Task: structure prediction
Amino acid sequence: EVQLQASGGGLVQAGESLRLSCTASGVSRDDYTLGWFRQAPGKGREALLCIGTIDGSRYIDDSVRGRFTISSDNAETTVYLQMNNLEPEDTAVYYCAAPQHPRDPWNDFDDLCRGRLPTYWGRGTLVTVSS
Result:
């Protein structure tokens, strides 16, 4: 079973940066898929970025394009979410996610972010951006 451990949340001021980490256990070291989602107060969960580590392909939601990036350290089965120029609207609980039944390491990243796959969820880490 896949387990996801997210960390790195905290309180920052608008304009600052923050990096979240998600370490996965129970995944294949060379071709796993992970993604980052968030849920703001009073809103539904939304997909941000997903990555297929077999070739580094990424899904990037338009809402964070240019400010957020996703990267991976395959040796550590860890995925990072680098968030720059944070805004108060980025305040949310951020979740790491992985497909429960990986099907295609070349395309699962897209399906994961589009909500097409049964998903394991990490516990979430809170990011608060003050104005």
Remarks:
- The mean pLDDT is 96.
